[in-house]
Amino acid sequence: MKKFAVIIALLVGLLSCGCGEGKPQGAELPDGVYSAKFTTDSGMFHVSDACEGRGTLTVENGEMSIHISLSSKNILNLYPGLAEDAGKAGEGLLSPTVDTVTYSDGTTEEVYGFDVPVPSLGEEFDLALVGTKGEWRDHRVSVSDPMPLTDSQAGAEETLEDGVYSVEITFEGGSGKAEILSPVEITVAGGKMTATLQWNSPNYDYMLADGEKYLPVNTEGDSRFEIPVPALDQEWNVVGDTVAMSSSHEIEYTIRFHPDTVKALDAKTLE
């Protein structure tokens, strides 16, 4: 009887110290958005170097998923499980998104990204992939080191005090002959941002942004516009109307701001 009581006591001790089966690490994470490390068993399958080995982990109602931006567009689908099951099922395949990653030198690249379900943190799980050759391959991956994303990391505009700044941009669209010059001047007043967009052409008579029409702020020289900016951490689609051709044409453009290049031009606070 005494020996039986000792065994029971040992079992209770093991369970109380967490040595028995318990909740996965993810169950202890509050709902929210985190930066987390994504590790794989292959040097050919990894997140983009621009992401420094990390992805964006989302926890909602105790369920976890991580968005990863890969190093290219060579991986076409992922499957949370084994390769042999992915080939049979044809369902549950993870489809890619097109992500734009920004490297430390300011250059950008379009790569494929995926939202991957995460069963637990700090433990390896199966994640199969298929590439351009059409052959499914097994891999083991893990997600660890979750770090809450702060408000300041959600967008550079939230950290900018009232003042005047410059920020580098990437500009796409049109024939490539006309462009908005980089860097762009940003004015922050009352927490709201306004960009001064300077073209290398005098032929733009208006611009459209977020459903609003804007006219040039100058009457001589290259066209210049002042337009409110919603955020610095996302693509911004605008339209420019040019009269350089026989008739006016509205042309769509995409502007990508690079928040890590923001520099103060005026140390004085705007009144």
What labels describe this entry?
single chain; 271 residues; mainly beta; Immunoglobulin-like; five-stranded antiparallel sheet; 10% helix; disordered N terminus; disordered C terminus
| CATH architecture identity of the largest domain | Sandwich
In terms of per-residue confidence, which ranges show pLDDT below 50 for 5 or more consecutive residues? Answer: 1-27, 151-158, 267-271
Q: Could you give the order of strands across the largest sheet?
A: 5-6-3-2-1-10-7
Q: Strand-and-helix sequence, N→C? A: HEEEEHEEEEEEHEEEEEEEEEE
Main sheet, how many strands, which sense, barrel? 7 strands, antiparallel
Please give the oligomerization state of what you see: single chain
The radius of gyration is: 26 Å
CATH domain fold name of the largest domain: Immunoglobulin-like
Count of separate DSSP helical elements: 3
Domain unit count: 2
| Dominant shape | elongated
